[in-house]
Amino acid sequence: MASPKTSKRRMSSPSDEARPAKRLEVDADAQNDASRQSRHHTLSYPSVNSSQSVPSVPFQQPTGLLTFSYTPQRVLEFTDSALRYYIDPPPGADLRYGYERWIKRPEERTRLDGLLRAVERVMQKADASVGPGSGEKWLKDIAVVTWRGIMTKILTAPYEERDRCELNAMYVNGTLYLEEHLSDARLKEKEDLPPKQRVQTYYGYSFESWCTSSRPGVPERLEGHPVGWGGDVDTNVQWCSVIKTKLGDNRLVIGGEVDCVRERFSGRTDTFVELKTSMSIRNAGDEARFEKKLLKFYMQSFLLGVPEIVVGFRTPAGRLTTTQTFKTVQIPRLVRGKPGAWDPQICFNWGQQFLFKLKSILTAAAEDSSSADEPSARVWRVTLSPREGVSVSLLDEDGVRDVEGGEGRVGFLPRWYYDKVAGQDPDPGPPLAAEAEVPPGTGMPPTTPSSHQPPSHQGWNI
Ligand code: A3P
Ligand code: MG
Known about the structure:
Structural class: alpha+beta
Pfam families: RAI1 (PF08652)
Strand content: 15-25%
Number of strands: 19
Number of helices: 12
Protein name: Decapping nuclease
Bound molecules: adenosine-3'-5'-diphosphate, magnesium ion
Family: Belongs to the DXO/Dom3Z family.
Strand order of the largest sheet: 1-2-17-16-7-8-6-11-10-3-4
Subcellular location: Nucleus
Mean pLDDT: 86
Helix content: 25-40%
EC number: 3.6.1.-
Distance between the termini: 49 Å
């Protein structure tokens, strides 16, 4: 068995020394050291080369909770206005078509706000149908709330060879919230893509337009455009699904964009279709690279319960050559024993370990007697470094201010949401998997909602 090695040791990188966590400073050296240890942790990835199988961690079939749309004005509405239907693309479609007219959503920090509006709505529905307080009870049972893209990055981290990923984490009333942390420099880098990369990114969106229609089974016919063109690309517009699932012991609420549905949408995930593009495969090396990429395709779709992935293969110049449909659940079998092989069980096992450790760290920190702050308002930086492992550290005041970004937030959570969910129950609840590791009875001081601004729902159209 490839058991994940974990260690908790003090990190002593120069950047840590240069930026002490001012808020938690204490006088005595020993106390200081202990406190520091509780603020910095590292986790190692499991081995991905082991030929032995890992114990399987069950992943529950996702249940759709609700769907919502972003309009061209980027307003969230609880409608299916942005839902599209799958249609076969025209053979040899030009994926560069319409590039000059692409309305590109500006790069910005991807907050959890939309997902939290959905969570609020699910809670309201529970209150209305089961009785007052049911929504709160429901949320208390949810271990993690995050976007699908973040969960994909966490689960595939043991196999990641290139991209570092930074997350912000908060633990509020028994639930872990995770958002991606994008520095200003990283945002600028994403906004100012080199022209070649920008066009390649567009190919993916253009494929979505060629493969979708506003009506099931009927190719789009838009004046002034070739038959089958689904409409000029506007990346503000998205159709999102929020699902509930369970990874091992952890109930997860995950939201993510769904590209289209086949034939009809029944409220379930069984007709969802994910669209992907990839360079045409010309040799064994290309094939191995594609098989590696299939891990991300698989995980991204599996997490939302998307049963089918349509891959459009293209030339470097963006001409569609072929399309191939993959059944999501069959993908792991396709790669087994191949050069680019991966095992989803290594990912699920790691995911369970990661969530358990993270929650243990955040829960233990809530007991840190040297701190006078409000534990549920703390923000942690979780860094997934390729091949190295994960570091978890508590942000200092400057770090938290940077995350808040001068908006009406507590950490990265909008204040209206934080006020709703924090401090309702002073018991932070047991850690994720084994209750024994963290001593019970760790009281989180209640928040003082009266000192907060009134909830603001501005900009939301629900
Ligand atoms: P491909 O999927 O064909 O790569 P998604 O597939 O997740 O629905 O995203 C649709 C398209 O958005 C992608 O097409 C790609 O063009 C672009 N895209 C998504 N995530 C990206 C990322 N991290 N970097 C660059 N482009 C991305
Ligand atoms: Mg897609």
